[in-house]
Design a protein that fits this description.
With 229 residues, the protein is of the alpha+beta class. Helix content is 45%, strand content 14%. The protein has a five-stranded antiparallel sheet with strand order 1-2-3-4-5. The longest helix is centred in the last third of the chain and has 15 residues, at 162-176. It is elongated and about 55 Å long. The protein starts with a helix and ends with a strand.
């Protein structure tokens, strides 16, 4: 899906074009405003190489219905995919399909730790193919989950590509406040979240609807994400 196709869809929905904006994480976004007070951004693919759309609102609690309607309209118009779809594709495929699934997860990864996502992403950090490892690293960086730090630190020590290894070390340092070796020799005080501990242990069946992402835009309103591989 390209920008022109999405622009035609936006025009049919009655949204008006507000120009292009730069996002800290996702690069350039074409932006539309709606009469209900929503902001719709379309990312054609950049740091995360899948096109996807984001719907946000300054007053999300007042705009939930409009946000849901915008999401539903996009789902009807385009082949959109959820976290669960990404996981199914990653589990059942290989090669380029796995990379596309991981890139999709990077765009829609839940706010909080999901065991199902971890079971797909962590092994991919150690995959034989460098392109799969890079895609998994992209998910880890966007998730910013503490539960990913220990396997990521181990991956940083075995990663043969120096650029990828440096990125892994930087993510570990950013999340743990320590370099890789220092982190790995620490006693592990963190247990994996389990059902009933107060953490969501498995969000894979839920789309990232209405979730404000600190890693995407600090202090932002609630947002929903739609992506197409």
């Amino acid at each position: 899906m390209g920008q022109a196709e999405f622009a035609q869809f936006a025009s049919r929905e009655g949204w008006w074009y507000a120009g292009s904006q730069e996002h800290e994480w996702f690069g350039s976004a074409h932006t539309w405003d709606t009469v209900e007070g929503l902001v719709v951004r379309f990312y054609p693919g950049g740091p995360i190489p899948v096109p996807f759309a984001e719907v946000s609102a300054d007053e999300p609690e007042m705009c939930q219905r409009a946000m849901a309607d915008a999401e539903a309209a996009a789902v009807r118009a385009f082949p959109c995919f959820s976290v669960a779809d990404c996981l199914d594709l990653a589990r059942s495929s290989g090669g380029e399909a796995t990379i596309r699934a991981l890139n999709g997860l990077a765009a829609v990864v839940p706010d909080r730790y999901s065991r199902a996502v971890g079971e797909v992403v962590i092994p991919a950090l150690f995959a034989p193919e460098s392109t799969v490892r890079s895609a998994a690293l992209r998910v880890v960086g966007m998730a910013a989950w503490p539960e990913f730090v220990r396997p990521l630190a181990a991956a940083a020590l075995t990663e043969p590509d120096e650029e990828a290894a440096r990125l892994a070390r930087d993510i570990v340092a950013g999340l743990s406040g320590a370099d890789v070796l220092t982190f790995l020799v620490r006693p592990s005080a963190d247990e994996e979240p389990m059902t009933g501990t107060g953490h969501r242990s498995d969000d894979d069946a839920r789309p990232a609807t209405g979730q404000g992402r600190r890693s995407r835009k600090p202090g932002s309103a609630q947002e929903l994400f739609i992506w197409t591989p």
